[in-house]
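Why show two proteins at once? Because comparison is the fastest way to build intuition. When a single record is shown, students tend to memorize it. When two are placed side by side, the eye starts asking what differs. So, the first record is below.
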Amino acid sequence: MSRRFEDVAIGDELPPLNVPLTRTLIVATAIASRDYQDVHHDPSLAVERGSKDVFMNILTTNGLVDRYVTGWAGPAAVVKAIKIRLGAPNYPGDTMVLTGSVSAKHADGRRVEIAVRGVNGIGPHVTGTVVVQLEGEDGA
């Protein structure tokens, strides 16, 4: 079921999403996004370069933020913009918790802005905003 523009209010909270940060998730999504940087798949080289382990790439984080918001908004939602900033790395063995809230509504185009935050055991991994276009009362 898709969320309708008329049913959304500024301040509405999205339900949190726990993302277990497995080594497989980190490595597989880096390779799937064609990011072959060794810090995303080779633990010893990641340590050599100053990291404690491999860590998630930005393309995976961007995809998870998209999934989080569209999972709330529904299949009819259209993502219009994603702006994110990375902070603490996502390392294997941790969990990232995504949270969000409606920060703005724009009646022209039925656009809703969602403030998103993803936090792991170290601190904020990602912060940003996602703008989605929602269905209207008429189903359009």
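Second record. Ask yourself what differs from the first in the token line.
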Amino acid sequence: MAKIICLLGASCTGKDTIYKRLLSDESLGLVPLVTYTTRPKRAGEQEGREYHFTDEDGFRALMDSGKVIEDRSYDTVYGLWRYFTVDDGTFDKDGRNVIAAAGTLPAYIKLRDYFGEDNTCPVMIETDDGIRLERAMRREKKQAAPRYKEMCRRFITDSEDFAEEKLKAAGVTNIFMNNEDLDKCIGEIAEFIRNLSGN
């Protein structure tokens, strides 16, 4: 039986890089569950790869059609940004494992409740706060118009959102550290997925 492997982690834990590397590992046979956002595209992002980029009207149309599984909205210093997951037929419990960069605990919980606990598996990526902050600064400096206030707001919010008691309450026990050795972290998660799939 296939599962949705939900990658969780605060900003700058390497979640997006890990997601891409796991997806490119053909031995894992993963299918991507690409989420949607109304935030502007960052430098280097492509439609349908990191996200499906849309606007408020696009979000409303998908909501009205009953296809939105979960959505999160952030009142940023640049306006309202939404992130959401759509049931577009990607997951088939008799098909291949699906990997989703679920991001937040509420997103994972809604995916778990929608698809069922037996069909979902959370994978939490953790990184030392100092390393996360350094990565966030480096990433923001590369942007054409750096958004430092938003970076700080998100850093603080993430620390609260991924508190130990919240992880425990959500039943998240598969935790992998990504401080200095990215390859080691990816290798450990890949092995976990292989064992999950019985490969």
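One difference worth noting in the second protein: The first strand starts at residue 4 and ends at 8.
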